[in-house]
Design goal:
Number of domains: 2
Helix content: 10-25%
Mean pLDDT: 96
CATH class of the largest domain: Alpha Beta
Order of helices and strands: EEHEEEHEEEEHEEE
Strand order of the largest sheet: 10-9-8-11-12
Number of strands: 12
Radius of gyration: 17 Å
Number of helices: 3
CATH topology of the largest domain: D-amino Acid Aminotransferase, Chain A, domain 2
Low-confidence stretches: none
Length: 196
């Protein structure tokens, strides 16, 4: 039985963008546990701190197995190493991240990795990526995991999809990391000169 995970931003006692997390959770349940009828709600935050920023981790399979709240601070990522992994598959947010951890362990002196699959840029080990060309923010058309924040930004037309190859990186000035915890406006940026 595989266990899955949702990571939700809890800010001052409120879980952010639950509808997006529920949509992704329901897709996973239809694939792995079609008879399960669980969903996420603000009630998860009943025992959570009411002030501050926390990562809410929900582990589930046929039912919710564990909910935990961890204090959160933005990561300090300044460099990325390109890692090719054509066979990697992470279209669902599995609790077991061993395939990604193996790739992460190849990062050498870089802070994180930038995964290349079938010649195209995908994601880092824990974030969707955006690249800025001086005019537009673009995100890879084929990420490993279609993140909830990425979906929100696409719907708001703040970002657009594109096929981005490693050789295209010099055409961009910077790369921005986003995920459920890291907002667009948090500006977690990396110079494209620090991608190697």
């Amino acid at each position: 039985m595989c266990q899955l995970l949702e990571t939700i931003r809890l800010e001052n006692g409120v879980l952010q963008h639950l509808e997006y997390h529920n949509t992704r959770m329901l897709k996973a349940l239809r694939t792995f546990y079609p008879n399960s009828r669980i969903s996420l709600s603000q009630e998860l935050a009943a025992k959570a701190p009411k002030q501050g920023l926390f990562k809410c981790r929900v582990v589930y399979d046929v039912q919710i197995r564990k909910v935990e709240f961890q204090p959160y601070t933005l990561p300090q990522i300044r460099s990325l190493k390109l890692i090719e992994a054509d066979s990697i598959e992470y279209s669902f947010k599995f609790l077991n991240r061993e395939p990604i951890n193996k790739l992460f362990n190849q990062r050498d002196k870089a802070d994180d990795i930038l995964i290349v699959k079938n010649g195209l840029i995908t994601d880092t080990s824990f974030c969707n990526v955006l690249l800025y060309n001086g005019k537009h923010w673009l995100t890879p058309s084929y990420p490993l995991l279609k993140g909830t924040r990425r979906r929100l930004l696409l719907e708001e037309e703040i970002i657009h999809t594109a096929d981005i190859r490693p050789q295209d990186i010099p055409n961009f000035s910077k790369l921005r990391l986003i995920n459920a915890m890291i907002r667009f406006k948090d500006n977690v940026d990396i110079s494209t000169q620090s991608v190697f």
